[in-house]
Design brief:
- The protein is mainly α and about 120 residues long.
- It has one domain.
- It is built from four helices and no strands.
- Helix 1 packs antiparallel against helix 4, helix 2 runs antiparallel to helix 3 and helix 3 packs antiparallel against helix 4.
- The radius of gyration is 15 Å and the shape is elongated.
C-alpha cells in the first residue's frame, strides 16, 4: 500500500471512530453501533491476508448512511426537551462530511487496488 493510500485509510478510520464517539456521547446508540461495527469489520479485513473486496463492502456500507432518504442524513441531535443542540449538530455535520469524503477517497483507492 502506498503512503498516500495509508494516509487516507488512516483518515477514514479516524473519521469513523470520531463520528461513532460523538453519536455515543449523545446517546444515538443505533448509529454509533453501525459505525463502530464498520471500524471493526474494516480492521479485520486488513489481514493478513488483506481482503480488499471485504474492505470495499465496508466502505459501501458506510456510504449507504448518506444515500437517499437515510435516517442518518435526517438526524438532528436534541436535548431532553427536544430542542436542537446547535453546537453538537454542527460537529455532527462536520464529522459526517469528513467521513463521507474519506470514504469516497478510500473507495477509489480500493477499486484500483482490486484491479491489480
Amino acid at each position: 500500500m502506498s503512503d498516500f493510500a495509508a494516509l487516507w485509510e488512516h483518515r477514514f478510520l479516524a473519521a469513523l471512530k470520531a463520528l461513532a464517539a460523538h453519536l455515543r456521547r449523545h446517546e444515538i446508540e443505533e448509529w454509533a453501533s453501525w459505525f463502530e461495527e464498520d471500524v471493526a469489520d474494516y480492521l479485520a479485513a486488513q489481514g493478513p491476508p488483506r481482503q480488499i473486496a471485504r474492505q470495499q463492502a465496508v466502505v459501501e456500507h458506510v456510504l449507504t448512511a448518506f444515500g437517499g432518504m437515510s435516517a442518518f442524513k435526517q438526524l438532528t441531535l436534541t436535548n431532553a426537551g427536544g430542542q436542537p443542540l446547535a453546537e453538537a449538530n454542527e460537529r455532527l455535520q462536520t464529522l459526517a462530511a469528513q467521513l463521507w469524503a474519506t470514504a469516497r477517497s478510500v473507495q477509489g483507492y480500493l477499486v484500483v487496488a482490486n484491479e491489480d
